[in-house]
Specification:
69% of the residues lie in helices and 3% in strands. By secondary structure, the protein is an all-alpha fold. The protein has one domain: Hydantoin permease. It is found in: Cell membrane.
């Protein structure tokens, strides 16, 4: 009897042990459930920002020849370097090697040295800048809904002044709640919703542009874009060209969160193969929308294309459709904010756990039963620090509402190292490419060209930033 009881207990323990291991990956971490669909959704959410609606302005600065050519060039560069980065997720072998959970881990495993710190600075400064910029942009979309209704009922010449600050607070309150999602692995549903929203407002902007062209309201366009002496001065033409190239280059950059996205994928099929397919799907989808929205938008508005033809009121009617599109932009940015801040949250929390492993405040997880959800693990440090982060980014957005001008500069500092330099250097090191071989030379040329583009974009961003500072009035109602 005792032996039978012992055997039964042993079997139960073994079964429980097997069940426990079924919920873990090969390295003892929680089993990942990400798929091609969820990775594609994360990429589309990260890449297709509300900036897609400003591409008509970018094409207007470059013209019919250079505009689409620059769009296509950066789509190819982004996809190519993303495939190199995807192969670096595991090391030393891209399939059987050890996992690298963050971009910094990848650089540490393949390059090491001070380049790890350079990567961390470029990545996390960019993430902070993007979250502040999204707070501003989302509030602009919310304000556009209010103004759209005002213009509809009071006429297009009405002042319709609306403050964006209450909407920044609403956006921050939503982010405080969503920021309690424990990690990137629990974010798939939000990314899928955000990706659907990005398709919705991009399609609305595209449809309205097509309608304007079809009914014969197309505007004046040029092969070389805005004309010197007619639309702009020669100096403004140069600055705008720099800014347009920068806008397009950074509109494709999602390398900041690529490794974190790849770390959500199941271990089989191999993560690098799935990630390459997801990158192809994400970049291809993005490019189609970018070319259509940029080119058709330019055809509709010509050289006077607004910076954003939904929030900048390139269209006024039908007002209800403009309202819906701007709501979609706000919802998309709610999800995109989380895609960009979750890697930052994870990095800071891991560092704190390593620094103070004995602190119950930092390490303890408390179980709370939530209606319609079940067990939810609450960590007090996570609640306090993430809430504080969202509040601080919202305050910075309120104090410096022209912070979007900083994003071009921050992007210039992150696009080259994160999207181009590190993926290429890690591939050269991993594949042991000989110096001055054909492959080494053309990879270096690609890297240097992208460095020049980043520097050009940085110059244009600084000029735009100085112009914003000159006309800055704190807490002004628009």
């Amino acid at each position: 009897m005792g032996d039978a009881y012992t055997s039964a207990s042993t079997l139960e323990l073994a079964a429980a042990h097997d069940g426990f291991h079924k919920n873990l990956d090969d390295d003892g971490r929680e089993k990942r459930t990400g798929t091609f669909v969820t990775a594609s959704a994360h990429i589309i959410t990260a890449v297709i920002g509300s900036g897609v609606l400003s591409l008509a302005w970018a094409i207007a600065q470059l013209g019919w020849v250079a505009g689409p050519a620059v769009l296509m060039a950066f789509s190819f560069i982004t996809y190519f370097t993303s495939t190199l980065l995807a192969d670096s997720y595991r090391s030393p072998h891209p399939v059987s090697g050890n996992r690298n959970y963050t971009y910094m881990d990848v650089v540490r495993a393949n390059l090491g040295g001070k380049k790890v710190q350079l990567c961390g600075i470029a990545q996390y400064v960019n993430l902070v800048g993007v979250t502040i910029g999204y707070t501003i942009t989302a509030s602009i979309s919310m304000v556009a809904v209010k103004k759209s209704n005002c213009y509809h009922w009071e006429g297009h010449e009405a002042s319709c002044k609306v403050s964006k600050y209450p909407y920044m607070m609403i956006f921050a309150a939503i982010q405080i709640v969503l920021s309690q999602i424990p990690d990137f692995h629990k974010l798939s549903w939000l990314s899928i919703l955000a990706a659907v929203m990005s398709f919705a407002y991009s399609s609305i902007g595209l449809g309205l542009s097509i309608a304007k062209v079809v009914i014969g309201h197309a505007a004046h366009t040029n092969l070389t874009g805005v004309q010197v002496g007619i639309d702009v001065s020669a100096q403004d033409k140069v600055w705008r060209t720099f800014q347009a190239i920068g806008d397009i280059a950074f509109a494709y950059a999602y390398s900041t969160v690529l490794i974190e996205i790849q770390d959500t994928l199941k271990s089989y099929p191999p993560e690098n193969k799935v990630m390459k397919k997801a990158s192809l799907a994400g970049v291809s989808t993005t490019t189609i929308f970018y070319v259509l929205c940029g080119c058709v938008g330019y055809a509709a508005f010509g050289n006077e294309a607004p910076g954003n033809f939904l929030t900048g009121f390139g269209f006024y009617e039908p007002f209800w459709l403009i309202d819906f599109a701007n709501v979609c932009i706000a919802v998309h940015l709610i999800g995109a904010y989380q895609v960009f801040c979750q890697p930052l949250f994870g990095f800071f929390e891991i560092k704190c756990r390593e620094r103070w492993p004995q602190s119950r405040f930092i390490t303890a997880e408390h179980i709370v039963n939530l209606p319609f959800y079940g067990e939810y693990y609450v960590n007090m440090f996570r609640v306090v620090w993430r809430t504080a982060y969202v509040i601080v980014t919202a305050l910075i957005a309120m104090i410096f509402p022209f912070f979007n001008s900083f994003l071009g500069l921050i992007g210039a500092g992150s696009f080259y190292p994160l999207t181009v330099y590190f993926p290429i250097e890690m591939y050269i090191a991993r594949a042991k490419i000989q110096r001055f071989s054909f492959t080494w030379v053309w990879l270096k040329i690609l890297s240097w060209v992208c460095l020049v583009v980043s520097l050009v974009a940085a110059i244009g961003s600084v000029q735009g930033l100085l112009a914003d500072v000159k006309k800055y009035k704190p807490f002004q109602t628009e």
